[in-house]
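Pilot study result, target chain (178 residues):
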Amino acid sequence: MDEFEIKIVKYFNQLGSKKLDVFFGFINSIRFLAFFWTMLVILAVAKHPEITKPFLEVVAVVAILHFGITEGIIKHLLLNFIPKRKRPYIAFPETIKPIGKKFSDSSFPSSHMTTTVAMFFVITAFYPSIIILAVMAILFMAFSRLYNGMHYPSDILVGILLGLFYGWTALEILRVVF
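Predicted structure:
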């Protein structure tokens, strides 16, 4: 493990307060994220019903790519051949405290980052005016995953790259196939 990455996680993790811990624990919960993404999709479709079919098709392709590749292949199938990467709070329990749900699967790559980037990539393709909000939300998620002690910077970086790839691929599939 790269010492620099560990120092970064320790730094962000020790910035907190009880209020921030509760807030970031909530923001990173799977229930909240499922609600958030569902509401964004509903709002997008309600605001412009003419994009419903292509928009939902792209969102579905992103979900298939994410769950098939990130969750299926990388985080589960490959673990039969390579050791899983321990999350920072597990690898360094004396100095990094977990905030929110204590995920114990491989920290590599960050699924939170992958889905956040992929979804915002798709949404900004349909609504380019929210690009600044999307970038801010992505940075916010990256900060929170370090703060919560769940990921190393490289987990986040690879999650961002996968999210960009999934979003781009989904839009290309829509353009070519549909």
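One observation from the pilot: The chain has eight helices and no strands. A full batch analysis is planned for the follow-on phase.
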